[in-house]
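FAQ

Q: What does a record look like?
A: Structure on top, sequence underneath. For example:
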């Protein structure tokens, strides 16, 4: 039996200009592995050359957007002795988010269940976020002795301001869709919890706008809002590696991973 791919790409049958990209590890709540990152990078590369697709909807299979980084990636990083290889491994997530943020197409993240850590980082690289009424976001990195990486802090700060960014990424609380809406983290709450249906409606509306105008507005808006991003986040994953030398953080992370393995789960966060 052929193993299922961690990333699936389809187009709406009645609207082929709308692509649907699904994170496809439902049994693991779409926890992000290197293979999934590679699949998302390949998808982004194909869309950069795609002149037919106008809008991309990013979603998670199984009623859950993404549980963030699979903890097996922590083991691979911590067991690697070549610092240059470690830096290449850890910077992949930031490159992924940049690739998705700079796509010419308009992008919509359809969030059901939870968007945790790296999963939320990917959603934040989209142009819009639609959340189901019972969806939530959670950034557990600080409790694991880590920083919030993947060049995400500038995106968060632009969206919700510095104090709320600190609340989300330092206090590690779970935040509901209603709170995300109040903060400006999401753009629409889906009635009846059907985030995909609401995201597709938004995609159809976006498709009614002439493609070139929409793409140029997106490019200029991103250029303005991202003007200082590189200067504030260029070293975030190197800071992550520094965090991995902290005994207190290492103890917290090892206890967390041990707890997950006892439950036979491999999630960055969640329940």
């Amino acid at each position: 039996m052929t193993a299922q791919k961690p990333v699936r790409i389809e187009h709406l049958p009645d609207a082929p200009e709308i692509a649907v990209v699904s994170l496809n590890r439902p049994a693991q709540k779409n926890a992000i592995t290197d293979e999934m990152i590679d699949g998302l990078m390949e998808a982004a590369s194909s869309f950069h050359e795609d002149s037919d697709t106008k809008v991309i909807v990013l979603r998670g299979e199984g009623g859950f957007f993404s549980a963030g980084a699979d903890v097996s990636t922590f083991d691979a990083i911590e067991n690697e002795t070549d610092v240059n290889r470690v830096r290449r491994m850890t910077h992949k997530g930031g490159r992924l988010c940049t690739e998705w943020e700079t796509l010419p197409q308009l992008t919509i993240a359809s969030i059901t269940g939870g968007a945790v850590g790296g999963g939320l980082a990917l959603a934040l690289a989209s142009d819009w976020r639609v959340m189901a009424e019972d969806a939530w976001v959670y950034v557990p990195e600080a409790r694991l002795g880590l920083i919030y990486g993947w060049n995400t802090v500038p995106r968060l700060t632009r969206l919700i301001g510095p104090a709320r960014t600190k609340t989300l990424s330092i206090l590690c609380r779970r935040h509901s869709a209603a709170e995300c809406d109040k903060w400006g983290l999401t753009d629409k709450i889906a009635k009846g919890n059907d985030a995909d249906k609401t995201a597709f409606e938004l995609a159809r509306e976006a498709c009614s706008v002439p493609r070139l105008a929409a793409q140029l507005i997106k490019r200029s808006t991103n250029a303005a809002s991202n003007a200082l991003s590189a200067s504030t986040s260029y070293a975030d994953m190197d800071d992550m590696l520094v965090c991995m030398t902290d005994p207190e953080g290492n103890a917290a992370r090892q206890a967390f991973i041990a707890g997950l393995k006892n439950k036979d789960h491999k999630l960055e966060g969640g329940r």
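Q: Is there anything notable about this one?
A: The first strand starts at residue 7 and ends at 12.
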